[in-house]
Design a protein that fits this description.
19 strands; globular; 18-stranded antiparallel β-barrel; about 55% strand; about 5% helix; mainly beta
Length: about 425
């Protein structure tokens, strides 16, 4: 059955349901083409390589349903690069994927449960985030039980993963084998406090003992933010302990993350921020088997440590860590926003030249990020940006490439997000 017929069938069934039990149904669309020019994106440009450019596109269709104690959502999406299939292709390279598919039920006035494919996002999205910058986003197959009363919330989440309906156990390495977490949030007059306890299990095959095992890592910490008149800020701190899977074995882990951000609104249109983040790493001459590099797991990592994604966006795992000193100047008026954010990067642990064995500078480089946003109307937003990386010889050792090459990145993105259909009936 073609996808267009499936969509019409879904709408027809839900409309009949809505009309019979008198509740709400919404359909909304997002089309998001993005042009990117990459010349040293994620890693320094190597000699002999050439810059590239492309247009990626997200097409997402959302169905939202609400009926008394029940809520449900189905989100279908296609992610593609312009030209990734022939102009006469009869099928798409990536097809249509299920981004979200969940329903929730209000058990009482304070308790509810949500089960299915869903976005899990908390606080500043450092540990759990929706990863909306990535065209495919990020969602989990999970059960989340929610408690909320007055200004307090508690979420209990859990998931178990497998590659299929197997008859016997096989090693699962696509993502975590299982996870469990508790998230607590309390809001005060001008501030809020969150606490997170997360346990993630990663499966590996112990070939020595011919068995499958799980390495369980715990991420524990909290996040707080405040706003007092024109002054605002936030602080997050986390520790990772337990075990991490390494090939066919597991090793102990002890790693840290601390981030602080302070801002001031000089006028209703202009604000400035200063911040620092520390993610622990492991020195290159450290022979201890214990892992010391912090991993921000399921966060929206593109929003941290520079937009050129040199650090923790599918990379920089189990390395020398990072110290990120940054600032931000932002101006907003009517439909227009502009922001300039410099980052100064240092390694959190020692770097050595692999040939001479000499200790290197901890300085990794400086990145400048310029971002502009224009809201054309209620359905269309245009976003553009330019970033430049000024790398060092130490960054060459960590990431490869040539610091003397011109390393930059630019993009223009259009987001078209109309509401296609809304229906509300009362009985």
């Amino acid at each position: 059955m073609k996808i267009s017929y499936k969509i019409v069938l879904i709408i027809s069934v839900l409309m009949v349901t809505v009309d019979s039990i008198a509740q709400e149904f919404d359909v909304n669309l997002q089309l998001r083409p993005r042009f990117e020019y990459r010349n040293g994106f994620k890693e320094l440009m190597k000699d002999g390589n050439y810059p590239t450019s492309f247009v990626s596109n997200r097409s997402r269709l959302n169905f939202d349903f609400k009926q008394e104690k029940i809520k449900a959502k189905i989100s279908l999406q296609n992610v593609r690069v312009w030209g990734d299939v022939n102009t006469t292709a009869i099928s798409d390279k990536n097809g249509v994927a299920l981004f979200e598919s969940w329903f929730s039920y209000d058990l009482t006035t304070d308790w509810s449960a949500k089960v299915g494919r869903q976005v899990i996002s908390y606080d500043n999205q450092r540990i759990f985030g929706g990863l909306d910058w990535a065209q495919q986003g990020q969602s989990h197959d999970a059960l989340v039980v929610h408690y909320g009363k007055n200004a307090m919330q508690i979420d209990f989440g859990g998931a178990i993963s497998n590659g299929g309906e197997n008859l016997v156990e096989t090693a699962y390495t696509t993502t975590y084998k299982n996870l469990q977490y508790i998230w607590f949030n309390k809001k005060f007059t001008n501030s809020s406090l969150s606490l997170l306890a997360l346990n993630t299990g990663y499966q590996f095959e112990n070939t020595t003992e011919a068995t499958f095992e799980n390495a369980y890592m715990q991420t524990l910490g909290g996040f707080t933010k405040f706003q007092n008149d024109n002054l605002y800020g936030d602080l997050g701190a986390y520790v990772q302990t337990g075990d991490t899977a390494l090939g066919t074995s597991k090793e102990d882990i002890l790693a840290y993350n601390v981030g602080i951000n302070l801002g001031y609104k000089f006028t209703s249109n202009f604000k400035a921020e200063l911040g620092f983040e520390y993610l622990s790493g492991k020195a290159q001459d450290d022979t201890d088997s214990k892992m010391k590099s912090f991993t921000p797991l399921f966060g929206t990592n593109h929003g941290f440590n520079g937009f050129m994604d040199y650090f923790y966006v599918g990379n920089h795992k189990n390395t020398v860590g990072l110290k990120d000193f940054y600032g931000k100047l932002a101006f907003e008026k009517d439909k227009f926003q502009i922001a300039l954010a410099p980052h100064v990067f240092y390694s959190a642990a020692k770097i050595f030249n692999p040939i001479t064995a000499e200790k290197q500078s901890s300085s990794l480089g400086t990145e400048l990020d310029l971002t502009c946003v224009y809201k054309m109307d209620k359905n269309i937003t245009i976003t553009g940006g330019y970033s430049q990386m000024f790398g060092t010889s130490s960054l060459e050792l960590v990431k490869g490439g040539n610091k003397d090459n011109d390393n930059n990145w630019a993009y223009v993105m259009i987001s078209f997000s109309p509401n296609l259909f809304s229906y509300k009936a009362t009985k």
